[in-house]
Structure formats: C-alpha cells, structure tokens
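Inverse folding, one chain.
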C-alpha cells in the first residue's frame, strides 16, 4: 500500500513541460504585438477583453477579461463588463475597468506608435462607468469592432507589468529561449506547468529536435524534409505514425505577398511596372518549390473569406504579357532607358535562413527571364520591420495572418489611414479604394487593388503540423494565441511518443 501511494504521489507531482520551436520575439508589450511571434507570446501573459473560442467552427467570440458586450441599437456604444467572478492579475490585484481604459488609451496614443493603433481608429471615447464596467463609444458603427477587442494588442496589463493570462514569463534569453510558467492565480484549470520555446532558425535542426523528442510540436513540415515525412498520398508516412506522431492539416487564413513601397520613385508611380512584376511571377514553379502546400492568391483575400472574388486575376503568371507591360511601363526587354542596363530592383527580407535565400533566388530567376535584376537584402527581423515602416525599402516580403474572419481585416492593409506605422506597410493611397472600403463595398475594393497591384500576390499556405501523441486536445486554428492553456500532456512513460527527461 505504501509503495503504491509513493508511485501515485510521484505521478501526481510530475511537472508537465511542453516544448516547441519558436520565432524571435522583439517585445512582450501588447502594444508591440504586430507580428505572429510577438502576438503568440504576448497572448500567454496578457488577456484581451474577448477571445476566439478555441473549439467553435465557424469561429466565434467568447468572454475573456470581459463578458460579450451589450451593443446599442445604433451600433456605436459597446458596454463591456468584467466577467462574472472577476479576473485577477498575477500580482493578486483584481482587474478593474480603470486598467482596461488605461491600456486602451495607451494603445490609441499616437506617441506610442503601436502597429496596432488602427484597432482604436474607430473609437471616440473610452469611459469607466464603475469598477466592473467600461463603455466604448465609436465614431460610427463598425461591424467587426468586437473582433478587434480579441486581438493581443488589447491585452490588459497591470501598472507593474503583470498580466492575468494563464502563464507568466519566467525566463527570457532573447533570441534563444523563452520559458513561461503557469500562473497560479489563473481562474481556470491549466494542465501544463511550463512552456519552453526555443528559437531555432534552421528547419533541419527543428526536425531533428522533434524527431529526437526534444520538441512536442512542429509548426510546419519544411520543404527540405517533405519527402521524409509526407507520402505521395499527402499523409504522414506509416513508419512515423508508428513512432507516435500525428499529422494535422488545415487551410490558413493568411496571405503572403511582396509589397511595393509606393513612395519609391521607380515603383510607386508606375502601375504598368507593378502589373508586369505580377505577370512575371511564375506561380506554378513557386508551388512546386513549396511542395504544393500553397494555394494561389488572386488578390488580397485568402480562400475561405466570404466575398472573395473568384474571377481570374488579370495579372496572373504570363511571361508574354509581362514583357508587353514592361515595354508599356518604359522598360522594353527589362532595360532601364536612363542607364542602358537592366532594371535593378531590391527586395528586403527579414530573415537569412536557407529557405529564405532559396526562395529569393527562385524569385530572382523569374524576373531574370524578363530582363530584370532582382537583388535580395537580408536583415534581422527588427531591422527589417523598422526599414519597412520608415520607407527605406523598395520591395519587401511579408505575410498577413487574419485577425478575424472578415474581408475588412485584409482590405484595411490598403487604406490610407493605416500607412506606416500602421499595417499599410507600402503606404498605398487611393481615394477610390478608401471610398469603397468605407462603404464596405468589398467587390469594388478588391477590383481596385487587383488593378493597381500594390503587391505581388503570392499565395495562401496550407498548414501541415506535427505533434507527438502525448499532446492532447490540440486543434488547428487560425487564431493560435494563448491556445497552450487548452493543451494536455500524457504522463511520462505513456506509449505515444518518446520518453522525455524532466
């Protein structure tokens, strides 16, 4: 009896530790959660007013710091009440309406230059009705406003910097490792005690770490490892299934693109040139390079968004048309008449991994066919974002992951009100587009953008992720912010997956 009790007590006190590769995080301030990695890290510690329901499909919102709001008949007044039972910061203090107002005011403050400042652009006032109630009045109705209040930008932070999330940041060795510890004051049961996120740029190293049981989750199967993981039927190879791995596949509410700096004297005023650069992009070759894990972009909206135009994109891959447009743009055969040489363009890329270099080389080969020289400039992520927002790039490679499933979230990337430091990174300005956007005329807005070509429209990815079977309750989602609080791990010694030292 004593021996059995000892074994049971040992199992009961075993710490559950979850590990995965992660990207570089520049800041843990919710105001700076402008890229995927920052947003995912921030969401573990700081909770927004609302959150996306992890289990619901189609996606819907649920309470987080606050209950779902009451909305006035005219759609302009949102009354948020702190959830029943209250919410506590890790320091033990209750979250009050004054904390929410302070954080939202800070987000809206232009002097803070938050990349998420656009989420507050429609807000007229934020007022405290009582300790438990915040009233937000909009300048005019905005049908997606509740979704904005579920973004990591709106995470509520105590004055001492602590949050109310399921975890707190225990250790951060910048650009190497982040360790998050379960928040003992969190209101709900959380099964995993500790999260260890390792910054590992090399995808082959990530795969070897996962294969060796050093990682519990692999966010994507790399192009180089594709044939060693995925069979011709698109499923996980049987020998890997037998080891205790599971493949999870899903579509993606995201778009990837090459943006043009519309203030650049070469690209900005020359629509024909931008159209030619779209026509010269060899999507079939790009798709083969990426193991058919992508869907073509025919404009700014990803598949699965209601209202997406499905008509053929006029500037899809067509080399003959690209050469014709180049000549009309003033660059016959790709030659710059000012220099008598090939037109020289530069693309800035915010990472220097092997994959990034190979993708840039492939892209350069597409433009070489029509006589254009494309040169890549590799930068650190922080330096890249700064250069893009300061207009010091000519072309730049970026992606946008949907914050909510509505055309507005993607189309706002082209509105003049969102020029840098906002999400309109290329500083595209077209009054006709703004008018269509403001009237929610998504068909006209898409047609304008597809004709103006402020981007090279690349692709929307399909997601292939791997987990060990010891990870339970993992559901692929486009809103993977703070989802670790929903995961569970089987105890050490379980048959599904490699044994792990604790």
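Residues assigned per position:
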């Amino acid at each position: 009896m004593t021996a059995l009790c000892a074994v049971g007590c040992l199992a009961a006190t075993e710490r559950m530790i979850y590990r995965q590769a992660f990207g570089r995080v520049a800041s843990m301030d919710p105001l700076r959660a402008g890229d995927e990695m920052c947003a995912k890290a921030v969401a573990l510690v700081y909770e927004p007013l609302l959150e996306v329901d992890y289990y619901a499909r189609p996606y819907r919102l649920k309470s987080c710091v606050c209950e779902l709001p009451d909305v006035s008949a005219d759609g302009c007044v949102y009354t948020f009440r702190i959830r029943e039972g209250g919410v506590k910061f890790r320091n033990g203090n209750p979250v009050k309406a004054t904390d929410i107002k302070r954080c939202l005011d800070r987000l809206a403050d232009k002097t803070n230059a938050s990349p998420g400042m656009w989420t507050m652009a429609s807000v007229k006032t934020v007022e405290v009705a009582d300790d438990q109630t915040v009233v937000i009045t909009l300048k005019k109705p905005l049908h997606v406003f509740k979704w904005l209040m579920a973004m990591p930008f709106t995470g509520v932070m105590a004055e001492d910097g602590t949050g109310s999330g399921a975890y707190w940041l225990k250790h951060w060795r910048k650009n190497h490792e982040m360790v998050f510890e379960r928040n003992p004051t969190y209101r709900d049961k959380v099964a995993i005690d500790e999260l260890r996120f390792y910054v590992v740029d090399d995808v082959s190293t990530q795969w070897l770490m996962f294969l060796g049981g050093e990682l519990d989750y692999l966010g994507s199967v790399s192009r180089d490892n594709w044939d060693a993981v995925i069979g011709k039927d698109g499923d996980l190879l049987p020998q890997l299934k037998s080891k205790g791995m599971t493949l999870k596949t899903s579509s993606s509410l995201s778009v990837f693109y090459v943006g043009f700096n519309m203030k650049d004297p070469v690209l900005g005023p020359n629509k024909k040139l931008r159209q030619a650069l779209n026509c010269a992009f060899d999507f079939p070759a790009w798709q083969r390079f990426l193991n058919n894990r992508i869907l073509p972009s025919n404009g700014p909206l990803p598949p699965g968004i209601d209202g997406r135009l499905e008509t053929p994109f006029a500037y899809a891959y067509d080399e003959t048309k690209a050469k014709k447009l180049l000549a009309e743009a003033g660059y016959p055969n790709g030659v710059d008449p000012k220099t008598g040489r090939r037109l020289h363009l530069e693309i800035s890329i915010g990472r220097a991994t092997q994959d990034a270099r190979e993708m840039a080389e492939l892209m350069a080969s597409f433009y070489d066919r029509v006589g254009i020289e494309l040169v890549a400039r590799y930068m650190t992520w922080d330096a890249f974002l700064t250069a893009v927002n300061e207009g010091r790039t000519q072309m730049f490679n970026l992606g946008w992951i949907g914050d909510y499933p509505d055309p507005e979230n993607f189309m706002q990337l082209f509105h003049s009100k969102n020029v840098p430091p906002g999400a309109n990174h290329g500083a595209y300005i077209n009054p006709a587009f703004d008018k269509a956007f403001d009237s929610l005329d998504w068909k006209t807005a898409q047609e304008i953008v597809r004709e103006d070509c402020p981007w090279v429209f690349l692709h929307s990815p399909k997601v292939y992720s791997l987990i060990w079977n010891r990870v339970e309750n993992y559901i692929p989602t486009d809103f993977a912010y703070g989802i670790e609080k929903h995961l569970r791990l089987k105890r050490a010694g379980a048959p599904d997956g490699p044994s792990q030292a604790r």
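Confidence is low (pLDDT under 50) at residues 1-11. The domain at 167-248+463-489 is CATH 3.40.190.10 (D-Maltodextrin-Binding Protein; domain 2).
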